Amino acid sequence: MSLSLTAVILAAGQGKRMKSAYPKILHRLGGRMLLEFVIDAALMLDSQKIHVVYGHGGEQIMAAFPDRAQDSVSHTTSHINWVPQTLQLGTGHAVEQAMAHIPDDVLVLVLYGDVPLIKPVMLTEVVSKVGEHSIGLVTVRLPDPSGYGRIVRDDQGCVFGIVEEKDASDAERGITEVNTGIMAVPASRLRGWLSLLTQDNAQGEFYLTDIIGFAVREGIAVETVMPESIEEVLGVNDRIQLAELERYHQREQVRALMATGVTVRDPARLDIRGDVTAGQDVTIDVNVILEGKVVIGDGVTIGPNTIIRDTEIGDGTQIQANCVLEEAVVGKDCRIGPFARLRPQARLADRAHIGNFVEIKKSHVGEGSKVNHLTYIGDAEIGRDVNVGAGTVTCNYDGVNKHRTEIRDAVFIGSGTMLVAPVTIGAGGTIGAGSTITKDTPPDKLTVERSRQVTMRGWRRSTR
Ligand code: UD1
Ligand code: CA
User: In 384-462, which ranges are E strands?
Assistant: First the structure.
């Protein structure tokens, strides 16, 4: 059937077992909120409209999705309609809240806000099951089905209904095929069936699952679809399940990365919390975290215990152990670390070297320049082939304002130098070790700011 698709995401549950001050759907998996996964899956399917039924923590949710909740009066944006469900009277009641905003001529896909790892293949399939005389339902076989609604089939193996665990007979509890909650139903039929729901059951709730029985009674077939792996339909109810899904998700992502030609020393010790693209023959050592948007060129090696966030790394660059890179852009064939820190807006040109205990912030380091030991570079522009000696500090902050330092091409800065910004070091200049430079220095000259060394003749250390 060629009805346009509307997704209804159920997310009003409190998530008591999370023992959290935040709504469950705002908890993160792979760096993204659970609800983001579900919204993105719905968007990928080309849902014309997405209705999120929320209850607990509405304000926190709106704050967490600012661009998706611009109009706080109507709760409407181009794609997402935020539907409040003040009292959580059950899954059927939740869907009904959204139906007030849904026309008859669409196909409704019901998703859960706490089931994050749903895949497009499965969702496309369940949607494709909907026809003149059929609806689609995602089910799964679980070794331990306890807690779930059971799928009851007739002698021919056709779905006959869903019975919730609390309402199930002993025999029904033995059924291992369970309801995932994900279903695709034409809005017109759904509306009718929802109006028939009652609270006449063990939990006193309006069960969405009861519509399955209504459908069968009207001669509508319930076509089931199973996911490729169980994890795709597992929900998060507590922090243990959150951690389990996190591990599964990480394994999947790391496998995908390895499939593109990346060597990962231990797939269990790489976490990806964002989007990573990597070239050929990249090697990643153990205990690495990649966050946000990370772009890694060909032949890059990343040493152990390194965190890289929203950063671009050019071909052939080596990042040694224990580095932290954040919002940086690194050229080709650079050498970074061990123990280096690149902060936001650090930009390294090709072949730059940043050594141990060096911090670079909002600065450009030119081609082939070296900053190898114990140094702070902030708000600076460093030219090419510069050598910054150990223990150099750009004194960029006067307590109120930040000031810039310019170090032109081929400068040599001796160790232990303070560059009090704003200041410019002329091209080819040399700064003697231990200088505190407060005025611009000329090109190609030696500048030293240092009190003379004296030795006291006739001095004796006191004795007892
Ligand atoms: C539901 C199904 C069960 C299925 C299981 C899969 C019903 C009656 N039962 O059971 O067959 O095996 O999910 O996990 O549908 N929600 C609301 N408003 C409400 C109630 C729930 O938005 O009033 C949301 C929850 O936030 C959650 C989802 O609906 O995302 C499922 O609710 P939950 O209470 O977990 O349902 P179960 O009893 O586990
Ligand atoms: Ca549940």
Answer: 387-388, 393-395, 405-407, 412-413, 418-420, 423-425, 430-431, 436-437, 446-447
Q: Is 456 helix (H, G, I), strand (E, B) or coil?
A: coil
> Has residue 58 got a pLDDT over 90?
no
Residue 73: its pLDDT value, please? 42
- Any idea which residue has 């209705």 for tokens? 51
CB atoms within 10 A of CB 347: 18
Distances in whole angstroms, Cα of residue 286 to Cα of each of 28, 309, 343 = 23, 16, 22
Kindly give the number of the ligand 1 atom that is closest to the alpha carbon of 180: 6
> What are the angstrom distances between the C-alpha of 236 and each of 38, 95, 120, 242, 381?
13, 20, 19, 5, 48
Q: Catalytic residue numbers? A: 373
- Using CA atoms, how far apart are residues 111 and 180, in angstroms rounded to an integer? 9
Express each pLDDT in 148-204 by its tens digit: 999 999 999 999 999 999 999 999 999 999 999 999 999 999 999 999 999 999 999
Residues in the chain: 464
Pocket test for ligand 1, best of 22, 91, 166, 179 (most atoms within 8 A of CB): 91
3-class secondary structure, 173: helix
pLDDT tier at 261, thresholds 50, 70, 90: very high
Is residue 93 lining ligand 1, measured as CB closer than 6 Å?
yes
Tell how far CA 305 is from the center of its chain.
Answer: 19
Q: Could you give the domains of the chain? A: 4-233 (3.90.550.10), 239-447 (2.160.10.10)
Find the mean pLDDT for residues 271-288. 98
Q: How many A from CA of 116 to the centre of ligand 2?
A: 12
- Looking at every residue in the chain, the average pLDDT score rounds to 95
Ligand 1 atom with the smallest distance to the CA of 94 is: 18
Let me know: does 285 contact 267? Beta carbons within 8 Å.
no
Q: How far is CA 15 from the centre of its chain?
A: 21
Does 241 sit in the ligand 1 pocket, CB within 6 Å? no
CA distance 42 to 304: 37
Would you list the DSSP string of 205-256? S--TTHHHHHHHHTT-EEEEE--SSGGGG----SHHHHHHHHHHHHHHHHHH
Distance of CA 41 from the midpoint of ligand 2 (Å): 19
Handedness of CA 15, 16, 21, 27 (dihedral sign): negative
